[in-house]
Amino acid sequence: MLKRSLAIITLLIIGYWLAQGLAGVPFGQDKMLVGQYYLNHVEAQTGAINVVTAIVVNYRGFDTLGEVTVLFIASTGVAALLWGRKKKRTAKTEGSVVLTTGISLLFPFVLMFGGYIFIHGHLTPGGGFPGGATIATGFLLMYMAFISYEIPHGKFEVTEGLVGMGYVIVGLIGLAISGYFLFDWIWQTWHWGAGNIGRLFSGGFIPVIYTLIALKVGTELSGIIDNMLKEEVKE
Amino acid sequence: MNVLSATGEALVLIGTFFYFLSTLGLIRMPDVYNRMQTSTKSATLGSLGVLVGTGFWAVGKGYSWAWIVQTLVVATFLLLTNPISAHALIRAAYKRGIPLWSGSVVDKYHEHLKKKEETVEEAPIEGDAE
Fold it and tell me: A96 and B84 in contact by Cβ < 8 A?
């Protein structure tokens, strides 16, 4: 009781303190400094009309590379923590007929929608991370509905590695061409898709990188799901 | 106001009405199975009304026809997946042994499981079978 009331009082004090701090920030007023620059120059400099993905991939590509690294470390860490000699799926009950049929029908559509999201990253909301998460959701559905379903491990791990390498290679090509890492050579040097802004074949290297990121995120999250759903079997 | 907008507005109104009914059923019904019944059915119907209605409404207001296509895709997806999820939830609830409402009369599934167990004969009970 004392513990709980102390916790509530502390939280209230922290909340009041934060509210006081935020009270000085005016709402609804134009406070953009860098933001205005992005909004004004995004089409000319990157060829994308989705400002968020342009910032995330193009202007601040290092953050995205870091995020991909974090995900990779998370997936590797889960695999290392749950590493066992003999691991198998121990689910007992198969999903009902309705569930298995429904999900085997739904699975390709989920994958297709994931693909739609990451291919259109420079045009519509979304991008590599939501697209990859959608793809992983498809595999999660398969795991939930079928007792013995397993992802093709070998292919998935190879894809994960190759695709991560692809991201760095795209960055290194930019380094070779212009002198700094993750330089958008497809747009800045080739001017590829310059008369095509707002359509699918535009956006510099954003669609390329988002395809790579989505494949990486999708295979990684599927691998995490696979690791977590397995249990050690006793001989 | 043209015909398309009017249709859309009417559909959205019907949809929200069914949303309301679904919430009401969630409060009013006595057990899990009845609650799932009311909420799933009317929430699915309400979503279809609101989604398709929004599509019609937007086209009537002069936006592109893509609105109808996109809302129809989402509506189809909901129409196909909502019953499956409701089925999975109900089945899991029954398997966990959540009782039917005290006023329920017939439980054929229980009888079916019993009969199956008898035919198997002395098989160890799986624990979560009913």
Answer: no
Q: Is B91 on the interface with A (CB under 8 A)?
A: yes
Q: What is the pTM of this model?
A: 0.83
CB A53 within 8 A of CB A122: yes
Question: ipTM score of the complex?
Answer: 0.77
Kindly determine whether residue A93 and residue B128, on different chains, have CB atoms separated by under 8 Å: yes
Contact A102 B84 (CB under 8 A): yes
* Residue that has been written with the tokens 């009082």 in this structure: A9
* Cα dihedral sign, B19-B25-B31-B34: negative
- Which residues of A have a CB under 8 Å from any CB of B? 92-93, 95-96, 98-99, 102-103, 105-106, 109
Question: What is the Cα–Cα distance from A93 to B113, expressed in whole angstroms?
Answer: 15
| E strands in A111-185 | none
Closest by Cβ to B87, choosing from A93, A96, A105: A96
Task: Count Cα atoms within 13 angstroms, Cβ side, for A18.
Answer: 6
Per-residue pLDDT of chain A (235 residues; tens, 9 = 90+): 899 999 999 999 999 999 998 887 777 777 778 888 888 888 888 888 888 988 888 888 889 889 999 999 998 898 888 877 667 787 777 778 899 999 999 999 999 999 999 999 888 888 889 999 999 999 999 998 888 888 888 888 899 989 999 998 988 888 888 777 777 777 777 777 777 777 778 778 888 899 999 999 999 999 898 888 887 776 6
In this complex, which of B77, B87, B128 lies closest to A98 when CB atoms are compared? B87
| Candidate from B80, B88, B95 with C-beta closest to A99 | B88
Cα distance between residue A53 and residue A126, in whole Å: 8
Quote the tokens at residue A55: 């910032």
Residue of B nearest to A100 (CA): B84
Of B80, B87, B126, the CB nearest to A99: B87
